[in-house]
């Protein structure tokens, strides 16, 4: 960008005289700019630091003087000023201020600067109106450059801070999922990661679906692990379970038991074992599986061969059905066991007519007899059916 008042009937001497006149008014213009910022964007000023308005004044004054330097010498370098405003942007990011706040402040100051400098120029009757218009355009272009520099600095610092926090979060998760972490180290890492150490947590084991990878913003992510997870604060709090289910739609997930933070690894261990059951088809994966809801299944499936033998014995009657019917009958029997043989509920679950369910139930009664209704065999039958159906998937 070239800040030159050229081709408008002013020679170098006249430009120098005009710039000198404008320079005399820079201090008062800068004071007015700070007052305008105080009125329009009062939240921008550091109320806890009475020195800040003076700091802001010095910034405005320095920026305005440099603009006039460029009018007088368009070849002068602006690099140091842009570097300064990039550093200001970095400072804004470190203090947690968004772009909107400081951009509003800078634009408020720009409006005053444009108005007052053009008023001073207009007071010299020998200055053509075309020069006044060009001064306005040059001031606006100059301040746009300063805003761009601040935005660059802000983005750089924000990205750096995000990267640093991400690294601290990774270290915190690594410590949480180890056995018996040191409580003092845990508290220190939580503080550095800006994560309030909760009274209780639950680990959630994850497997990515074919689409997306969205996570709840309030969960502590452990996606860098070979077996990804998230750690949830206060998992039994009001609405937390529903929020967790809705926030994990992009993942196949299993929720471990609630525990204290120092025992997160134990929660994660059970969550991963539960997720394994989902992956094997022994549990549905359309919503997060809950380890504590599957304790019987988790205990029994420690030995897959034993479950296979159980399925072979309990489901032997299915072998007497025709091959095309076996899977439908197995799915119907599993749904009946889970719905306490309520034909209407089973029909909704299987998306078939209730009369179809009743027909299949009659056939199942022929094959299995009273054993099918024995409540003491229900868990074994469900386990055997899930194992059998998973093997056919």
UniProtKB/TrEMBL annotation:
Coiled coil: none annotated. Residues 16-177 form the PucR-like N-terminal domain. Residues 329-386 form the PucR C-terminal helix-turn-helix domain. InterPro entries: CdaR-like_regulators, PucR-like_N, PucR_C-HTH_dom, PucR_C-HTH_sf. This is Helix-turn-helix domain-containing protein.
């Amino acid at each position: 960008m070239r800040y030159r008042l050229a081709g408008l009937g002013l020679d170098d001497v006249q430009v120098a005289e005009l710039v000198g006149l404008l320079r005399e008014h820079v201090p008062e213009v800068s004071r007015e700019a700070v007052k305008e910022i105080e009125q329009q964007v009062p939240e921008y000023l550091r109320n806890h630091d009475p020195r800040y308005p003076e700091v802001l004044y010095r910034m405005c004054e320095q920026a305005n003087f440099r603009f006039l330097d460029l009018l007088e010498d368009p070849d002068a370098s602006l690099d140091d000023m842009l570097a300064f405003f990039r550093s200001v942007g970095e400072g804004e990011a470190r203090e947690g201020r968004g772009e909107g706040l400081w951009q509003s402040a800078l634009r408020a100051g720009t409006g005053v600067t444009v108005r007052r400098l053009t008023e001073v120029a207009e007071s010299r009757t020998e200055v053509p109106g075309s020069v006044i218009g060009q001064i306005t355009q040059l001031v606006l272009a100059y301040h746009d450059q300063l805003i761009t520099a601040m935005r660059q600095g802000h983005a750089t610092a924000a990205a750096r801070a995000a990267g640093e926090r991400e690294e601290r979060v990774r270290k915190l998760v690594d410590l949480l999922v180890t056995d018996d972490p040191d409580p003092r180290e845990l508290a220190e890492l939580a503080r550095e990661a800006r994560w309030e150490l909760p009274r209780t947590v639950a680990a959630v084991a994850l497997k990515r679906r074919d689409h997306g990878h969205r996570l709840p913003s309030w969960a502590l992510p452990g996606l860098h692990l070979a077996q990804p997870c998230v750690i949830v604060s206060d998992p039994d709090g009001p609405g937390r379970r529903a929020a967790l289910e809705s926030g994990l739609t992009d993942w196949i997930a299993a929720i471990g038991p609630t525990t204290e933070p120092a025992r997160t690894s134990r929660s994660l261990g059970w969550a991963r074992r539960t997720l394994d059951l989902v992956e094997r088809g022994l549990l549905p994966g359309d919503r997060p599986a809950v380890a504590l809801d599957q304790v019987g299944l988790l205990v029994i499936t420690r030995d897959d061969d034993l479950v296979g033998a159980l399925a072979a014995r309990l489901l032997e009657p299915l072998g007497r059905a025709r091959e095309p019917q076996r899977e439908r009958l197995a799915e119907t029997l599993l749904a009946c066991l889970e719905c306490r043989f309520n034909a209407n509920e089973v029909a909704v679950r299987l998306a078939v007519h209730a009369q179809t369910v009743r027909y299949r139930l009659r056939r199942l009664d022929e094959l299995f007899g009273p054993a099918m209704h024995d409540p003491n065999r229900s868990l074994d039958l469900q386990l055997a059916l899930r194992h059998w159906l998973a093997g056919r998937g």
